[in-house]
Design a protein that fits this description.
Length: about 230
């Protein structure tokens, strides 16, 4: 089922997590554990360059004729209905917000986000490439670098940007994340890259420019502040 939680709803869910830290999150009621080390994906240096340079279009996901004559409100509704029964995350982002996200993704192309687990937090590395955001457990990135397998890929389709919307489609590895966890990472991305919060911007700057001053626990403190 698609996940379309807004940052405001995300704050509510974080409050519920804060009040009930022992909540079980896994599929079929299993507790969510930390990621285990995975095998690397195929060496990207051996893949054709077109794999990385071709910009995906909205027509790759759905038929453009379904929405080309619709207004923003209608497009948002169609996009959400289209993903309603799919195991993906999706969002319709106002173009002005996506402009901020994309601009910051070029300034801060790599960052890490914490994800609540049963016995603490696990860090996931996010790396931007064009209009895509690729996530992998930090443990896998430390082992395999650029060949670490993605557990979540968010693609932003800019075909309708002039109409005022950018449509996001995110696919996740269900062996690593469930839908709620994938949405948690997506919402953190929007909170850091799409909003003007000075504290979060400072964390982006420290991670990128003065990593010796960056403290991972600051990310957890910021995440838990959302529950207050």
């Amino acid at each position: 089922m698609s996940r379309r939680t807004s940052p405001e709803e995300f704050k509510i869910r974080m409050k519920e997590h804060h009040e009930k830290k022992s909540t079980k999150k896994g599929i079929s009621g299993e507790e969510r554990r930390f990621s285990s080390l995975s095998n690397p994906k195929e060496d990207i240096t051996k893949l054709p360059s077109s794999t990385f340079t071709k910009q995906k279009t909205l027509n790759d996901v759905m038929k453009m004729e379904l929405i080309e004559d619709k207004n923003c409100g209608e497009i948002k509704q169609i996009w959400e209905e289209y993903h309603k029964q799919k195991e993906v995350i999706a969002a319709a982002i106002p173009s002005i917000i996506y402009d901020t996200i994309h601009s910051r993704s070029q300034q801060f192309p790599v960052f890490v986000f914490p994800l609540p687990r049963d016995k603490g937090y696990e860090y996931f590395l996010c790396q931007f490439s064009g209009h895509e955001a690729h996530f992998t457990p930090l443990i896998n990135y430390q082992a395999h670098k650029e060949n670490a397998p993605e557990c979540l890929t968010m693609t932003h389709y800019i075909d309708l940007k002039e109409k005022g919307l950018v449509l996001m489609h995110g696919e996740y590895n269900k062996d690593v994340l469930n839908g709620t966890e994938a949405q948690c990472l997506a919402n953190q991305l929007q909170l850091y890259y799409g909003q003007g919060n000075a504290k979060r911007l400072k964390l982006l700057e420290r991670f990128t420019y003065t990593p010796q001053e960056f403290k991972h626990m600051d990310l957890i403190a910021e995440l838990e502040c959302l529950s207050l």
